[in-house]
Amino acid sequence: MNSANFLSGGIYTSLSNVSDYFDLKIHNEQLLEENRILRQQLFNTMDSVNVKRDTSTFDGTYQFFKARVINNNYALRDNFITLRAGKRDGIIKDLGVITSKGIVGVIDQVSNKFSTVVSILNSNSQINAKLKKSGHFGILEWDGKDPNIVKLVDVQEKAPVAKGDTIVTGGMSTIFPEGIGIGTISSFQLDASQNYYNINIKLFNDMTNIGHVYIIKNLDRKEIEILEEQTSDEQ
Amino acid sequence: MNNDFTKNSLRFVLLILAQVLIFNHINFLGFINPYPYVLFILLFPIGDNRTLLIILSFFLGITLDMFSNSGGMHAAASLVMAYSRPWVLRSVFGVAYEYNTIRITNISFTERFIYIITLVLIHHFVLFLLETFNVSDILYIFKKTLFSGIFTLILSLIFITLFSAKRK
Predict the structure, then answer these.
(1) If we measure between CA atoms, which residue out of A107, A82, A105 comes closest to residue A94?
(2) I want to staple A75 with a disulfide (CB 3.0 to 4.6 A). Which of A37, B1, B27, B166 is the partner?
């Protein structure tokens, strides 16, 4: 049983049709901010040669979808988000979900019109993440208490950890592309074995107010998975 | 009977809607949510079939689970609550319960208070125990049970007072 069915999805949609108006101002500001960043990138291109892209065919690795959040929890231990986008919009299980600021979660169940997301505020969520500066990897977890703080565990003791450093997604999975923002380090300490860091991260996203999200589909995923399966079969 | 049936069905639907659309999003102080949907179990006619109450409580819980993606936590907590209701009724109301003469609207405030708080705490404890599912966080479970329980109690008392028909 999950909330991606016609009954609960329908009820949540009609509620969000009304309640979305209350957050319009904040969502507009978020969009403006995103546009500002995109424009900045557009007019400060890395390449000195201006390459004109043929946009009539799609040849990238990542395809983006947009979706509206119709239900969002953050006060439970295992939080889920319900989106108004499903199979008919091209959504499948295990796709990454982000906002313009940072990651939100991973798609879990999908029905025709709706889908549920395992929020990063869920004790079962495990996402590969790394320190932006040095590239040391760890696993992103949540202890179920503060919706603004998540934990990065299993980071090597050798890693240069400092307060305020940025944590981004690791790109070791086929779910998220590398380098999507997660948050900044607010505090850290070594774990009981003295070999790994436990790092507290302050999220970029305000998980208590999410209006619209982007869903990322890795088009190479099937190929990677088949290859990995064959590799493990041969051994 | 027909009147009771309509009243309880309506209560079932309205309480679930109120729970998922309003009370699940209160998040007072970050983690305190009331669960006034348990009013359905509290107010279920006392003389009626016990098996029926348990079956209905299961459906009440599982419907809520569907809305909040919580597996079966609400269903389990509602079942425990419905199952323990006869014992609570007997210990709170004593002989009066045996004769089926009590109504939730015409008992004294103290009795009503004890009846509601006992059942609500049972329900919330099972719910948060299953939600946290970690004995090392037992203090957190107690804290959440207590605060949410008080919140639910206050709302339940208000609802009962607001929606009870006046009889002289």
Answers:
(1) A107
(2) B27
- Regarding whether A109 and A22 lie in a shared domain, the answer is yes
Residue pLDDT, tens place only, A62-97 = 888 899 999 988 888 889 999 999 999 999 999 999
ipTM of the prediction: 0.76
Determine the 3-state secondary structure of A59 from DSSP: coil
Q: CB–CB of B30 and A146 under 8 A?
A: yes
Residue A151, phi then psi, degrees to nearest 5: -115, 140
Q: For residue range A5-20, what is the model confidence (pLDDT) as tens digits?
A: 888 888 899 888 888 8
C-beta atoms of B66 and A1 within 8 A? yes
Q: Do A80 and B131 touch (CB under 8 A)?
A: no
Closest CA to A167 of A111, A129, A136: A129
Please count the structural domains in chain A: 2
CATH number of B2-163, picked from 2.130.10, 2.40.10, 1.10.1760, 3.40.630 = 1.10.1760
